[in-house]
Inverse folding.
């Protein structure tokens, strides 16, 4: 597995996204056995970075992840757990309460990374970061970041964060390169901020005959090739999601794939023709 190293922290290029684990915006407890089985499989396969949020299944995703970690017997120190505060909870007291409740649901003493999930019109980032910085000072959070922030919002966050901003988590894939066009990826590299790519595999990016042919030539699945294109970029990590153990294993294996300059150029060419 390739890793990114930032501010003394090593993080794998491929993590595990838990959106839809536990439900979507409301809990689906009738499927808990399925969700716990998927999380157990991911832990057994060797995933160490797990990304969740208070809004996922109204907190049930965090509950299931915490349960799966306890049942796995994995050493907490060897895991990297990310959660997110929702945009309606960006006032000082709300941030503190949201973090406290996320930790309770997860059954953890601290989060490795805590993100503002979405920007909100009229948000007052100095107040929000006053709370986030306090959480770091108290040891309840180790690193801070943002998600879905545009360039201006991200740079303001850099100025308000008492510790180096760790990441901006955005949608990024072969067919969705908005973060390149709007300058976010370039600014992340300039400022030493990781870009975390969610929704890294989109069907319209991997279903062309040319893309599938290149994947076969490299003896990869189309999904692995799409992920490899991301993880071979400096300063980029990804958090694909899957309930299927085989797909989980294939996604994790993409973190070991090295693409040469010609493969990366070929993929850029396929994008330009799409």
């Amino acid at each position: 597995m390739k890793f990114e190293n930032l501010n003394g922290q090593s993080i794998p290029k491929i993590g595990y996204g838990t959106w839809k684990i536990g439900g979507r915006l409301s809990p689906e407890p009738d499927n808990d056995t399925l969700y716990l089985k998927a999380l157990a499989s991911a832990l057994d396969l060797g995933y160490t970075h797990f990304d969740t949020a208070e809004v996922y299944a109204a907190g049930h995703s965090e509950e299931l992840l915490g349960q799966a970690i306890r049942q796995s017997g994995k050493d907490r120190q060897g895991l990297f757990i990310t959660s997110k505060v929702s945009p309606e909870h960006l006032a000082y007291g709300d941030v503190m309460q949201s973090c406290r409740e996320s930790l309770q649901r997860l059954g953890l003493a601290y989060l490795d990374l805590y993100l503002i999930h979405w920007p909100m019109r009229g948000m007052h980032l100095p107040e929000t970061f006053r709370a986030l910085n306090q959480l770091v000072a108290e040891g309840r959070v180790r690193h801070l970041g943002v998600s879905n922030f545009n360039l201006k919002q991200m740079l303001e966050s850099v100025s308000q964060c008492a510790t180096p901003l760790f990441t901006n988590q955005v949608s990024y894939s072969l067919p969705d390169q908005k973060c390149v066009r709007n300058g976010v990826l370039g600014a992340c590299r300039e400022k030493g901020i990781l870009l975390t790519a969610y929704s890294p595999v989109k069907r319209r990016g991997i279903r062309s005959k040319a893309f599938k042919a290149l994947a076969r030539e490299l003896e990869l699945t189309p999904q692995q090739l799409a992920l490899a294109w991301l993880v071979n970029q400096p300063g980029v990590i990804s958090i694909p999601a899957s309930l299927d153990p085989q797909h989980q294993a294939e996604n994790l294996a993409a973190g070991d794939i090295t693409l040469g300059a010609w493969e990366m150029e070929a993929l850029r060419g396929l994008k330009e023709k799409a």
Notes: The chain has a mean pLDDT of 96. The longest helix spans residues 92-106. DSSP finds twelve helices and ten strands in the chain. Residues 16 and 239 are 5 Å apart (CA to CA).
